[in-house]
Write a structure and sequence with these properties.
elongated; five-stranded mixed beta sheet; alpha/beta
Length: 685
Amino acid sequence: MKLDIFTSLINLLIVYMVFAIAFAITARRHPNLDGPRHWLFACLALFTGYLGLGLRDVIPDILSIVVANSLILTGGVFLWTGIRRFFGLRWHWSLFALFVLPGTVLLSLFMTVWPSIPARQIIMSVFPILISLFAIRDVYQQRSFALIMETNLFIGFVGTEIVMHFIRITTLMMVPVSTDSYLLGQDQPDKLFFIVLFMLSTIRLLILVTLVSARLQDELNQLASLDPLTQLPNRRLLLQRLKHGINRERRSGKQMALLMLDLDRFKTVNDKLGHTAGDELLQQVSGRIQSRLREADTVARLGGDEFIVLLEDIAHPEDAARVAEEIIADLSRPFQLLRSNEADHEPGRDVQIGASIGISLYPQHADSPELLMEQADTAMYEAKQAGRGCYAYFSEELTIAVRKRINLEDRLRHAIELQELRVFYQPQIDIASNRIIGAEALVRWQSPTEGLIPPLHFIPIAEETGLIIAIGEWVLRETCRQGQCWLADGFLPLTLAVNVSPQQFRRCDINALVAKVLAETGFPAGQLELEMTESGLMDNQDKAVEVLNNLRNQGIRLAIDDFGTGYSSLAYLKRFPLDVLKIDKSFIDDIPHLQDDMEITATIIAMGHILGFKVLAEGVETQDQLDFLRMKGCDAYQGYFTSKPVPAEDFAELLRAQHKSGESLFLRQLLWASLPNKRQKSRDR
């Protein structure tokens, strides 16, 4: 069959009618899908408009030119609005004026004032270009991953249609045409346009149908994977994600937790207020659980009042317990139900329930999805047996350990608020003169119930939870305040060393903090020494150099702590503006019994002096150790041989004793006699 303008027009009418029927059936069967309803109206408008063009010699010009072309424009607008509704984009009905009203007015003007055929046809190409550009923008903004192939095809074909209209506009402006007929003859430039328009319209509508089919298939897949009441993943989808998570964590060597959750007293609410209220309660429960999770976590409903939470990539076992505690606390708050019991016509009311949670860990407890769920279920029943409203791990020992650790974390938070922390000071002794030249400030926790808690029991928790930042700031401020008090009391200037944790170094502006504290306390910058570990400096060397230079510009002394246990590289020692190297206690402990430690210590001392640093040895506990350090030229030391860390009042007494005695031997004897436990081997930091 020879394709001419009229044949293409008839085929176009058939295409629009067929697709109008298809979209009408889809809109009737799936009323929640907005796109097909708009595309039905688009097909009807386009069908009527092109039919009007074909009946140019039968119906009046006002109908075949103005009304028909306006209907074609309206059809394009409905195509665009259908795309917006299909992809869930907002729509303002006022935007119709952007297309329909200007099109109608301009076509009317062209018919009466400027009745040239090319002008009318140029307008009929300008408006589809605008509509197509808006459609491409909308689809690109809201592309669904599930429909990525279909939407890309649609964008491509709409772009092709834009190019076609540009070519048409150019051709109409360059080729002269007669003005006595609307549909051009076989030798006119619109012949190819109508043929291409028929093919592109057919392909575009086929793509729209494909989009609808893909969306419906996606909804069917969701129905098979989601709980219809809460829209949470069901058991099937959970098992898929759990299996995928196990495979990923196995490769990365990380941990994962599964929390099995059962609602306490839910059956009572369901029986008393009815299933409608029970369904509403389950929906509110799912919302509260989701609010406590990260985007990477998954919460699923297994059925009834059982939920399960998958926590991927957790750092510590107690992370799961913290999430469990938050969920339990949230679900213990009253729920306000708005729906009434239809049978008894009762209004909504406040109800209170609870939750019991069982926890299993990967890889500690199991390495398969089914076994992890089984063990989490066993742990949940253990939690119910323990009195409900609590959590339990599959391992009883782990449950006890985690609860103790979390309890300690909570107590530590309160200890900071209640000012239970104390600063102790360990003297730093000049080896040559045997006199106190400074002190290291060490934090202690003075619990009203347990007494003095060693730092090894709470500093690791503070590091993991970020509480170390608040603790470090408080220690710095308290040390500077105390140092200024000693200066005001007439003591000789001392260097006070304060530890800076890697967390402080990375997460807060240590320069601004030090400047603020020194300004508040009036303590001289030259008497403050900040101690940093090798690992803290090596995490980001460029930033570390910048921070240390800024601190040096303030006049702060800088020390590297625990030297010899980390990188111990000359390259970074040359880069960092340091004043003091502190030899780690582990090298001092076995002097003079272990030759390797003696050689390492001697090397560190020599290397430090070559680079222009003072060298201080930590953990000195015997005369032999001190004699060795003196022989190798070490500058200073600290340790139980002279004094353990003591409160500020006791440290002041040591300073007074030193001030009164001009003989270092007398000071040594006084300290030895007055302070017990000098030979304790535990590290005291």
